[in-house]
Specification:
By secondary structure, the protein is mostly helical. It contains six helices and no strands. The longest helix is centred in the first third of the chain and has 33 residues, at about 40-75. The protein is elongated, with a radius of gyration of 23 Å.
């Protein structure tokens, strides 16, 4: 491929990949990537729940960072570190959900994340809030599993099993 651009002509190492050539030469209305599967009527409810939980996991990350900041402010670095680890874990959970939605060929919808609380009455109150939050996630994952089961979506049921098992651990340490 020879470039008409005189600057690019000077660079003998300039090469376009076959994919870049196809992109360059294809009309704009020609799909370059293969058509992705879309959630059908039965699985659209499951997809909506996964996108909602993606937002929940990102919000949980914010809550744990807010708790980390609370503990640092009150000179409790050990508790702050524990919350930092929890925040990172929630971020990993969000990434797993994001990747799963993409792997299914579905559309990820990033939603707005509300501002988390910034203050608690005591360290014990902060941990109680963390426990309550994790317990609510357990219920959400159970409901998502039931939706996937009702839709006959075996792949999502298998995917959610990891989260259900993880929630047992999360509640135990919260």
């Amino acid at each position: 491929f020879k470039s008409p651009n005189p600057i690019l002509k000077q660079r003998s190492s300039f090469r376009l990949s076959p994919f870049a050539i196809v992109c360059y030469l294809s009309p704009m209305d020609t799909p370059i990537m293969p058509e992705r599967s879309r959630a059908d009527d039965q699985t659209s409810d499951v997809l909506a729940a996964l996108n909602d939980q993606l937002a929940n996991e990102l919000y949980a990350n914010h809550i744990y960072h807010a708790m980390q900041a609370y503990f640092l402010y009150h000179n409790l670095p050990g508790l702050a570190h524990w919350m930092e680890v929890q925040a990172a874990e929630e971020d990993t959970h969000a990434r797993r959900i994001f990747d799963f939605i993409i792997e299914r060929g579905w559309k990820v919808k990033i939603k707005a994340i509300p501002e988390p609380p910034h203050d608690w009455d005591s360290p014990t109150a902060a941990f109680q809030a963390a426990y309550d939050h994790e317990h609510s996630f357990t219920e959400i994952f159970h409901e998502m599993y039931r939706r996937a089961e009702a839709a006959g979506d075996i792949a999502t049921r298998i995917f959610l099993q990891w989260f259900i098992t993880e929630q047992v651990e999360e509640e135990a340490v919260a």
